[in-house]
Write a structure and sequence with these properties.
Number of domains: 2
Number of helices: 5
CATH class of the largest domain: Alpha Beta
Keywords: Membrane, Transmembrane, Transmembrane helix
CATH architecture of the largest domain: 2-Layer Sandwich
Organism: Siphonobacter curvatus
Helix content: 40-55%
Protein name: Outer membrane protein assembly factor BamE
Shape: elongated
Strand order of the largest sheet: 1-2-3
Strand content: 15-25%
Low-confidence stretches: none
CATH topology of the largest domain: Beta-lactamase Inhibitory Protein, Chain:B, domain 1
Mean pLDDT: 91
Structural class: alpha+beta
Largest sheet: 3 strands, antiparallel
Distance between the termini: 38 Å
Length: 159
Amino acid sequence: MESIVVFLIPLSILYLFSIPVYYLIQSLLKKRITNKKIRILILWLLTIVFTPVFFISCIVLFFMVINYYPKHAFTANRWATEKDTRYEIEDDLIDSKLLIGKSKAEVIQLVGLEGNDIKSDSWRYFTGRKPGLNFRSSVLKVDYKAGKVKKAERVVLAD
């Protein structure tokens, strides 16, 4: 009984998605194919082919929408004032390699010290929780070598 339910649920979801696909294809074919038998055959074939495509497209679109967040250019002011949404400017900070080669004093001037030990060669800055199904926080990790920034990268924290 349980295996039947597992089979019927996805089938019913596909059936629901097939309804708009069917009517859309029907409206497109009505004027183009005048022979009714051929039109109905093509209509059903195209509905069978395009329903899974439409279903998968809707799922992909759903995940794209819930994982979307705006990306902005890095500014020291935005970094200082919008601590919970730093992930929006983190990519620009990393990709532009703005911190690479800077001294600790220059980094403090740009992004602050925020509880990092001045003597440590690895600093971390909280960048917030990105929207979506991933409920993990991330930090910007800045590594120093000989007093200069060697690497700046995003690190996802395990909850």
